[in-house]
Amino acid sequence: MLKLIQNEHMKWFHKRSTKVTFITIGILTLCMALLMKKVANSAGTEDNILNFLSFSSGMLILVQFFALAVGGSMVAKEFEAGTIKLLLIRPARRSTILASKYLTLILISLYYLLSYLLFSFVWGALFFGFTSLEGDAQLLKNITLTYDSAYMETFMMMTFAFMLSSLFRNSALASSLAIVVSIGAKAVTGLVSEFGLWWGKFLLFANTNFVQYMDGMKTMFDGMTIPFSIFVLVAHFVFFMGVAWAAFLKRDVAN
Amino acid sequence: MTETVLQVDHVSKVIGKKTILHDVSLSVERGEIFGLLGPNGSGKTTLIRTVVGLIKETEGTITVNGFPLKEQFTSAMKSIGAIIENPEFYDYLTGYQNLKHFANMHEGITSERLDEVIALVKLENSIHAKVKTYSLGMRQRLGVAQAILHKPALLLLDEPTNGLDPAGMREFRTYLQTLCREEGISILIASHLLKEVEALCDRVGIIQDGELKAIQDLSPNRQDQGMYVEFEVSDAQKAADLLSQEFEVTMRSHSIDVAIVKEQIPAVNKKLVDSNILVYRITPVYETLEDSFMSVTEGEHHA
């Protein structure tokens, strides 16, 4: 299993898109830093690194998109390149191979998330410094929570992308559909919440954001609790995994 | 005693209402090259893919080196190496990285073994170049390398010379025969090229419409099956009359074809000479693979 995960890392690492992703994350966070610097200068306010981390955490959706691109291609690329035929004729069960791919995907999403945080930290330190940090414990807590819920969303959606990848065996379709659903479903959940429809609380995106359970916050729908959200997330996860596994294990590789 | 490396037992594959494979049984013995000959769409590829577990059989069992494929997949796959159609690799990785990738999926493949295999397929000079720069022949050789890394007992090849030029095909054939001799492995090869199969295989199964129609022995020490002997004689009519009670005789203008085996030639010759028929030439005629292929598949050209 460890060697399979190592294999998946090798394939991911040597792809050009991987390098491009890290560079893009670096450049985009740099742009955010420059933008905030400009705004701060013209407003005459003094910002520190935490203000920037808080600002940049608002764009964590980028990390999700990159994770969806990887998740959507993880299985499908093997079919598109024909390498699946050489991969599945080894002394390794299909379920082990799929598990190694999924675990690698989780690790990759964490690398992306960490690199986003790291770049934000470096640019923040360079452009804003560590001045007047005292009394910002609440801000730090908020940043952590934003990262947490952003990753929760990323985790669920990349599992969805992984399922599509296994189901359709087409990486372009899987990745783009996952991104469209990610954007669309979020908007739909917001609309359903506006109209106060009761069944909205079962939607995935109503439950990924745990900030709503903080003191003084209102939940997206009435009657939502933390255990309920966890239940909805687990139910979605089990469904995504079940479909991915069935599609990968049961179907023939005929071309 | 021969040892069976692959046993295919009453295997059928049905997709929807279409029968792709119908009750196919065959076995491959140690050190043997077995050919699967059939037109495109006859079920060769499906059979090969079923043996490596890419396609699941609807009925029947497949046993590899004593391990049932379905129940003990990983044990069975340890003995199998395969090239399924044109070997396709991770283009953006080097040849070496590709090999390393597949070596990681087997147990105990040392870097010495990797070097040994690379030398065997003569890729030493380009193994650290990206696969996307490889020619088809080089890919084919890398395909052989990934298939024999783990010293499998059975090598499965599906249309292995597709897209190779005649020189490449010949070179590839030599490789396979060397492998068979030096590594002692058995080979099951599917092809629609009659000449290729004839040049390479010890036994050939002819497959059509998903059914194994016949198995023919092509090895030098084969039984003298499907053979007749042509006698060029002074009087064909007289010779035919003389032999027709005892043997199956076909008469031609200056010769007769007698359905006998090699051991009977001297006796038949003596009989002719004793009856004052002059014998100019005796030629044993083997049924060629082409003959049996045509006779097995003829009358089925309904298209």
Automatic annotation (TrEMBL), chain A:
Pfam families: ABC2_membrane_4. This is ABC transporter permease. It comes from Priestia megaterium (Bacillus megaterium).
Automatic annotation (TrEMBL), chain B:
SUPFAM superfamilies: P-loop containing nucleoside triphosphate hydrolases (SSF52540). Keywords: ATP-binding, Nucleotide-binding, Transport. PROSITE patterns: ABC_TRANSPORTER_1 (PS00211), ABC_TRANSPORTER_2 (PS50893). It comes from the Bacteria. GO terms for molecular function: ATP binding; ATP hydrolysis activity. InterPro entries: AAA+_ATPase, ABC_transporter-like_ATP-bd, ABC_transporter-like_CS, P-loop_NTPase. Signal peptide: none annotated. It holds the Pfam family ABC_tran. The keyword Transport applies. PANTHER family: ABC TRANSPORTER, ATP-BINDING PROTEIN (PTHR43335). Belongs to the ABC transporter superfamily. This is ABC transporter ATP-binding protein.
